[in-house]
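Sample entry (146 residues):
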Amino acid sequence: MQNKAIILITMTMLSGTFACSKSTPSPYNGTFQGTESGTQNGTAFSQTTLFTLTQTGSSVTGKYTINDKDVGTIAGTASGYTLNFTVTQTPIGGCFGTLTGTSTINGNFLNGTLSAPAKGSCGAYSSSYQLLYFDFDLVGPSPTPS
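Predicted structure, serialized as tokens:
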């Protein structure tokens, strides 16, 4: 009986060791699409937005696409389920520059904001978005911890 108790305790301790060595999830790997709404130069807008992201460690890179047109590159740093990033825009109608963004993962949704001060003929930019994770192989981000 005593040997069985020692084996049980040893197995419990080993399983605890394995549980602690679990790797940190990479929730910002994938494609997120949805609606982004806000104002630019005081004019309201709503557009279909797509983030295509790759996470390696805490580094996140990707593409920013609006209405099926690539309009910028994303670079940022993730900490758990929070991402702080910049979008370096490609010229669109004479407007380009850098947007600053913050995102959080909540289940399969990416929620966040983008902003930039006025620059030249381009007015200030401010938006919020809720994008849904999707992928053709149906593998999503790690679920948000409870």
